[in-house]
């Protein structure tokens, strides 16, 4: 540096002080400094020449300071609590068999817990949730994919507006679909509390769901509560519905596939899309009827017609390849009344279980995030390789008419899904074309413009390879049925509207 | 839903400060959202030896 003849930055130990004195840095400041002090010694030609090195040292020190907090890696939860004494939440994603021990430690330290780990034994889950309840704490999970607390996404979740809808959900992708649909309408979330996939099992009995409802009832920002789960067992279902009807706020209950109106303050949504629509109805003070599609019947019919016009007669079936388990389930709820039985590795009814999930049969929806697929590899929302292979496999099958996909954006997910699958979709369409077939690929993107992957950009890229995009997973499934049936299910879909 | 729930500070009322155990992506995503997070350098207890782990648990360790 110009005008600087020598410089040193060192701790003021007796030895270092002697080095400095020997180098000509003398004076009371050096003598008074103790071993915990840092001495910055610069010999310069004049005051002006000092400015630049001093500024540089200050910059280094302050960036060092912020680095330090990130670099500290305590070896245990207990020592982490000592370092961050005001921590209030533990996010745990270690292997399931060790999860209870750490989650219990967290609760004992007064922390709420977000437990992403799966394969935690049901007894351990019950024990953890009881321990949390006794302490007035919350255990979100195990097997909890998503929560959004005070606008902060934990696990997999989208960047959505803040607002007045509160969600309690046993399904992570359920939160993602409902929150992104609300966001698309300009509405937002107060909080979304994930409970973990097993919370509403009869054994666990909905401990976290009940606690979540209570928290949202007390929360001033929440005006409407949405409950999302696959249908629970009868005892737990009755308990939750009872809590919902007794609530001081409107509650939309979405036990996927179960309809019927309930008590006045509690309405039942069959699909995730219905749940979002009903919640927005409460927020806006006007309820809107259900429509099968966001766009007009004539537009949907002509689009479906153009998708099926070049299909061969052998192409009859829908093949849903899902990364979101609940989206896979919702599609079956939508498809079954339209096209009949849908086979799956996560079926609506046990008799529809597919023998081999790696080979589709007739109409099939495959949850590729299920255990048989994810052991030893990342979740399909992150790693698209299995779905890409499967897409080509379906394209080779002369019976495949439509491949149905979910593309989930947000924190946790693949950083650029469209780039990831674009070429495979183009190849799949070519493969079918070589066999004188036309493969229709229909997808919905679960995301927002604010997501790191940018909804708009993803949509544009997928559309460029011929993917038909629908605004929700339910609509994508309906559209697939319209295409695969060559318009025949239109009667069921649009019947009431005519 | 009323009754003898213990007094507590609701998680919904607080600014989140997170201790992360496990997948590092979750900590990174929280940092991107401006959340203070500290990651534990977690290792399986007893080196992952389940027999030893059971013994330790019996001893209350």
Total helical segments of chain A: 18
Spatial separation of the terminal alpha carbons of chain B: 37 Å
Strand order of the largest sheet of chain A: 14-15-13-16-17-18
CATH fold annotation of the largest domain in chain A: Rossmann fold
CATH architecture of the largest domain in chain A: 3-Layer(aba) Sandwich
Write down the Rg of chain B. 18 Å
Rg calculated over all Cα atoms of chain A:
28 Å
Would you identify the regions of chain B where 5 or more consecutive residues have pLDDT less than 50?
1-6
Helices and strands of chain B, in order, run as: EHEH
Largest interface: A-B, 59 and 39 residues
Contiguous low-pLDDT stretches of chain A (5 residues minimum) are none
Q: In percent, how much strand structure appears in the residues of chain B?
A: 15-25%
Whole-Å distance between the termini of chain A?
Answer: 82 Å
Structural features:
heterodimer; A: 498 residues; alpha/beta; Rossmann fold; 3 domains; 6-stranded parallel sheet; 5-stranded parallel sheet; 18% strand; B: 61 residues; alpha+beta; two-stranded parallel sheet; 2 strands; disordered N terminus
Description:
The complex is a heterodimer of chains A (498) and B (61). Chain A is an alpha/beta fold and 498 residues long. Chain A has helices at 14-22, 28-32, 47-71, 77-83, 96-108, 122-135, 172-184, 207-218, 234-245, 272-284, 297-308, 325-339, 371-374, 385-396, 417-434, 455-464, 473-484, 490-494, and strands at residues 4-11, 38-44, 89-92, 112-115, 139-140, 146-149, 152-155, 162-169, 189-194, 224-229, 251-255, 266-268, 317-322, 343-344, 364-367, 400-408, 440-446, 468-470. Chain A has 3 domains: 4-71, no CATH class; 77-284, Succinyl-CoA synthetase domains (Rossmann fold, 3-Layer(aba) Sandwich), CATH 3.40.50; 297-497, Rossmann fold. Helix content of chain A is 42%, strand content 18%. In chain A, the strands form 5 sheets. In chain A, strands 14-15-13-16-17-18 form a 6-stranded parallel sheet, sandwiched between helices. A 5-stranded parallel sheet of chain A has the order 9-8-10-11-12, with helices on both faces. A 3-stranded parallel sheet of chain A has the order 3-4-5. In chain A, helix 7 (172-184) crosses helix 10 (272-284). Chain B has one domain. Helices cover 30% and strands 16% of the residues of chain B. Chain B has 2 helices and 2 strands; from the N terminus they run βαβα. Chain B has helices spanning 24-32, 50-58, and strands spanning 17-21, 36-40. A two-stranded parallel ribbon of chain B has the order 1-2. Chain B is elongated. Mean pLDDT of chain B is 81; it is low at 1-6. At the A-B interface, helix 4, strand 3, helix 5, strand 7 and helix 8 of A face strand 1, helix 1 and strand 2 of B. Strand 3 of chain A pairs parallel with strand 1 of chain B, so a sheet runs across the interface.
């Amino acid at each position: 540096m110009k005008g600087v003849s020598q410089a040193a930055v060192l701790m003021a130990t007796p030895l270092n002080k002697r080095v400095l004195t020997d180098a000509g840095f003398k004076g009371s400041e050096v003598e008074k400094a103790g071993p915990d002090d840092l001495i910055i010694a610069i010999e310069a030609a004049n005051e002006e020449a000092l400015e630049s090195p001093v500024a540089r040292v200050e910059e280094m020190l302050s960036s060092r300071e912020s680095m330090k907090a990130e670099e500290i890696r305590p070896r245990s939860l207990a020592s982490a609590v000592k370092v961050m004494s005001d921590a209030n939440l533990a996010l745990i994603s270690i292997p399931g068999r060790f999860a209870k021990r750490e989650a219990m430690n967290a609760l004992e330290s007064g922390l709420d817990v977000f437990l992403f780990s799966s394969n935690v034994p049901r007894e351990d889950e019950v024990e953890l949730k009881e321990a949390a309840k006794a302490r007035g704490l919350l255990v979100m999970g195990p097997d909890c994919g998503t929560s959004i607390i005070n606008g902060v996404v934990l696990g997999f979740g989208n960047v959505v507006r803040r607002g007045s809808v509160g969600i309690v959900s046993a399904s992570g992708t359920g939160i993602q679909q409902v929150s992104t649909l609300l966001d698309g309408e300009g509405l937002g979330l107060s909080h979304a509390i994930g409970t973990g996939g097993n919370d509403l099992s009869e054994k666990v009995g909905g401990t976290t769901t009940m606690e979540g409802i209570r928290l949202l009832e007390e929360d001033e920002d929440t005006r409407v509560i949405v409950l999302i789960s696959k249908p629970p067992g009868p005892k737990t279902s009755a308990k939750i519905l009872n809590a919902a009807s007794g609530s001081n706020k409107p509650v939309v209950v979405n036990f996927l596939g179960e309809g019927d109106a309930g008590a006045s303050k509690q309405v039942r949504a069959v699909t995730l899309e219905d749940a979002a629509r009903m919640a927005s109805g409460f927020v806006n003070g006007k309820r809107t009827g259900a429509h099968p599609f966001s766009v007009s019947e004539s537009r949907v019919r002509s689009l479906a017609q153009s998708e099926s016009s070049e299909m061969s007669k052998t192409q009859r079936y829908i093949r849903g390849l899902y990364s979101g388990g609940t989206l896979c389930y919702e599609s079956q709820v939508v498809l079954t009344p339209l096209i009949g039985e849908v086979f799956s590795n996560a079926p609506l009814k046990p008799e529809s279980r597919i023998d081999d999930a790696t080979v589709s049969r007739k109409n099939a929806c495959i949850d590729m995030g299920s255990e048989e697929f994810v052991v030893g590899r990342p979740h399909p929302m992150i790693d698209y390789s299995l779905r890409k292979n499967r897409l080509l496999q379906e394209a080779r099958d002369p019976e495949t008419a439509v491949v149905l996909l979910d593309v989930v954006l947000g924190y946790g997910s693949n950083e650029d899904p469209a780039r990831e699958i674009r070429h495979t979709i183009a190849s799949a369409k070519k493969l079918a074309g070589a066999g004188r077939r036309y493969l229709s690929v229909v997808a919905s993107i679960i995301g927002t413009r604010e997501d790191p992957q940018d909804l708009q950009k993803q949509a544009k890229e997928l559309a460029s390879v011929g993917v038909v995009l629908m605004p929700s997973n339910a609509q994508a499934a309906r559209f697939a049925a319209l295409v695969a049936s060559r318009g025949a299910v239109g009667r069921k879909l649009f019947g009431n509207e005519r | 839903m009323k009754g003898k729930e213990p007094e507590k500070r609701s998680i919904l009322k607080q600014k989140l400060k997170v201790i992360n155990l496990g997948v590092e992506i979750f900590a990174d995503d929280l940092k991107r959202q401006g959340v203070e997070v500290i990651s534990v350098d977690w290792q399986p207890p007893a080196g992952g030896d389940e027999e030893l782990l059971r013994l330790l648990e019996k001893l209350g360790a």
